[in-house]
Specification:
Elements: H1 2-33, E1 35-46, E2 52-55, E3 58-61, E4 66-73, E5 79-87, H2 89-95, E6 96-97, E7 100-101, E8 105-110, E9 119-120, H3 124-161, H4 174-198, E10 209-221, E11 230-238, E12 244-252, H5 254-260, E13 261-262, E14 265-266, E15 270-275, E16 285-286, H6 290-324
Antiparallel strand pairs: 1-4, 1-8, 2-3, 4-5, 6-7, 8-9, 10-11, 10-15, 11-12, 13-14, 15-16
């Protein structure tokens, strides 16, 4: 029973990972290749009981609780519609009230190929954050489910071969078994989180614009428990239309902090950033600090992979130990 439950969890979580990854990939494609226009909300539906949509023959995960139907006039002169476009809770609160939907006009980016899901530009930030959470949580559940299913399958098969009653795992060293499973789970979580952060749908990945931003404030925040100090900056910049945007405080690396301050005082007033026009609330990327952040992600990836290998080695050792234990008569 436990093995079947783990298999079900692993399969469902894997499907959610694939669906969330595909949704993020489609968003990146539309934001990079699509054109900006406005779309009319023509309907809405709750997706909590059936979080799926069918675009032709290929199913699509609708990761949000509420989706909307959109209509717009395409560049090709034709009227286009698309059903079940996911929207975040923050956007839903403004246009959906119970069973009533406000037929609002929203800024979007679209492709007129009929298969690309329109992206509501004012909803990009919350949706990307939600997809990241879905990817991380479902990825960890999938890893734990597959590891647990494989371990139970191997242990029950080995126990059956040795004639142990009920297929129990007698003869397995519990310390190696549990430490190995824990190392696999923790390592998988670290590796998956680092991979997700190292391939973000950020301003660079979405074809953002590079501008010079003013550093209006910088602050070092000591840890209350004597740990590592956090460094933050606040940014301000103008877009191509002259509108002023602000972002922060946002965390920067210690190396970048050392380049812009001296004796704790801000000495560098500007830095190059990349941001995504249309939604400046997405965290901009500080160009000079990006390599350090990627390096930190690579460290997390390396540690996660090490723990995965260590956990597999412990599980392999536990199986060898079981094989060498004399069978019960």
């Amino acid at each position: 029973m436990a093995r079947k439950l783990l298999l079900l969890i692993a399969l469902l979580a894997t499907l959610v990972v694939l669906g969330s990854w595909d949704n993020r990939r489609q968003m990146q494609r539309v934001l990079a290749e699509g054109y900006a226009t406005t779309a009319q909300v023509t309907g809405a539906q709750y997706q909590r009981n059936m979080p799926l949509a069918a675009d032709g023959w290929w199913p699509r995960l609708v990761e949000q609780e509420i989706s909307v139907d959109l209509g717009w006039q395409g560049r090709d002169g034709k009227a286009h519609t698309f059903r079940k476009v996911p929207i975040s809770d923050s956007l839903a609160r403004g246009i959906v009230n119970g069973d009533q939907v406000r037929l609002a006009t929203l800024p979007v980016k679209v492709l007129d190929d009929g298969s690309a899901v329109p992206v509501i530009t004012s909803d990009v930030g919350p949706r990307l954050a939600s997809l990241q959470t879905w990817l991380t949580v479902s990825g960890c559940l999938a890893l734990a489910g597959w590891v647990g299913f494989a371990a139970l399958t191997l242990f029950e098969r080995r126990a059956a071969e040795r004639g142990l009653s009920g297929g129990s795992a007698t003869g397995l060293p519990p310390s190696r078994l549990f430490i190995g499973l824990a190392a696999l789970a923790i390592g998988g979580f670290l590796a998956f989180s680092a991979w997700s952060e190292n391939h973000p749908a950020d301003a660079i990945g979405l074809g953002g614009e590079e501008v010079a931003a003013d550093i209006v404030a910088a602050r070092a925040i000591p840890s209350k428990d004597g740990g590592k100090t956090a460094y933050t900056v606040q940014l301000s910049w103008k877009d191509s239309l002259g509108a002023v945007h602000h972002f922060g405080p946002t965390v920067v690396s210690e190396a970048f902090w050392g380049r812009i301050t001296q004796n704790g005082e801000l000495t560098v007033k500007q830095t190059a950033i990349r941001y995504r026009p249309g939604d400046p609330q997405i965290r901009p990327v500080i160009v000079d600090d990006a390599p350090v952040q990627r390096w930190q992600s690579q460290v997390g990836m390396g540690l996660g992979l090490f723990l995965i290998v260590f956990g597999l080695a412990l599980l392999s050792s536990a199986l060898r130990h079981m094989r060498n234990v004399p069978a019960k008569r």
